[in-house]
Fold:
Amino acid sequence: MMISRMNHPAWFFVPYVMLFLTFIIIPVIIAVGLSFTYFNTIEAPEFVGLRNYVELLTRDEIFMQYVLPNTVKFAFIVGPIGYLMSFFLAWVLAQVPHRTRTIFAIILYSPSMTAGIAMAVVWRVLFSGDQSGYLNSLLLNWGLVQEPIQFLTSPEHLMTIMIIVSLWASMGVGFLAMLAGILNIDQTLYEAAYIDGLRNRWQEVFYITIPSMKPQMLFGAVMAVVGTFQVGLIGVQLSGANPTPQYAGQLLVNHIEDYGFIRFLMGYASAVSVVLLLIIYGISKVTFNLLGERD
Amino acid sequence: MAKFRGMKINPDKFHRSQIKFYFILIPMAIFMGLPIMFIVSHAFKPLNELFAFPPRFFVRVPTLQNFRDLISLAGDSGVPFSRYLFNSLVVTVSGVFLSILVTSLAAYGLSKLHFKGKKLLFEINTLALMFVPIAVTIPRFITIARLGLIDSYLVLILPLIAMPVGLFLVKQFIDQTPNELIESAKIDGASEMQIFLKIIFPIILPAVATVGILSFQLIWNDVIGSTLYIDDESMKTLAFYFATVAQTMPGQAANPVAGQGILAAASLIMFVPNIIIFIFLQNKVMNTMAHSGIK
Structure:
């Protein structure tokens, strides 16, 4: 039988590597390549050097004025808060009995499984800007506001709603990893540390819990960073328009879509893609260093 | 030991000292669970309750009308609902199966076999944890068009099979299995593939289940594949159909409110398989996550 002769490592890694190259590595290389060209999908790409990047950083007012600040704001709120919330809730969950913990973990994890534009429409109903919107109706009823708030169409509120919705769905794989990490810490470590003079819960968290589960903390951090940039479409889905009202919810991902699939300027869109990948990589590196120092 | 009042991980039963945790968990669970309750409730509302003013959160007289409308609406466009469902099932089941196979084979290779470039492959894969597919939509499309994969079921599956997170999790899990098991099987004359299939695979089932869940979520919820790579309407998936309903529905001024109920039904249909699978496999997922750390 053939299986009894399959010893070569190629049997194991070739299928994965082929798919990995074709659908991840090669597209990234093409993106980098196209970012140095002018490409409108009809004519062949024309090499333009760094022009796309120069234009992006010096002349694209929408990028500098809205897209970049929005992305930074969104990422720096959703990323760290989502991450801290994941850790904190995992820490709390680890301290209740198994059955209760399972039920709560399923409830907390389930938002991260909701997806898609149909879900976004459900949010639109909840946050709808007239009196029939559920949240507005409640606020009016309790006398907290005098007239309905335009949650999704007004530039001031759209970003806030995007952040809340994203945080709501941020207890994902990273959260599960951290929960498992805490549950697997050797209980005797705590007992020993208290004998050695550990005095309170803060010390306990910082001297025992976090150092003992640092691998999971790092994994959770990467997942938080990636998750933050992956939900980029939420603004367009919530407001139902690309561009979002006065670009209030415009994120890097929307900018790529805008140039790539609406204006068909693929070279320029690729330059934005490369910037996005570099930002994610940079933030992950910084996060690694921050977490790494706690040794 | 009397002074030890610190963290008690995974307590056996309820104790008064845990009450404080429930003060955190219960409000959080309500915040996270309410939108999901809302979808469930909204999906079963009859028209007059969807129209009701002031709006009511919970359904009073549940009906299946929204689901019936969702199904019959598909027939209007020429492709019956059952066709979309069939496509989704075929693509998801075969995709999950292939993903599990390809990922665990590669993970075994990375963990237990020796070959040139092994370390490099693992490092690139860890780097690819930060990969955001949405950033390379355009070059991916170019690659797929060049390969002649447009308009085939394969194009809905292949791009999603190689999951860096999946490989990472399974590889970490296999690292924990003792080498002695493999050595003794080798003395008995087993090939690497036989060892993988008969000895390692049964041990790593928890990790396999986790990859299964992650790839299920990815493929079942994927809209991009059907939107960009498939022109033939009868080959598109359920997620795509729901997305089109969501995009056309609220715009139709004739009946925007009825649309909400239908879309809630759609969200529910997308969500339910995810949660059911997670509930069944959550123990295995937690087991895998314990080894998820980045070292």
In short: Strands of chain A lie at 37-38, 46-47.
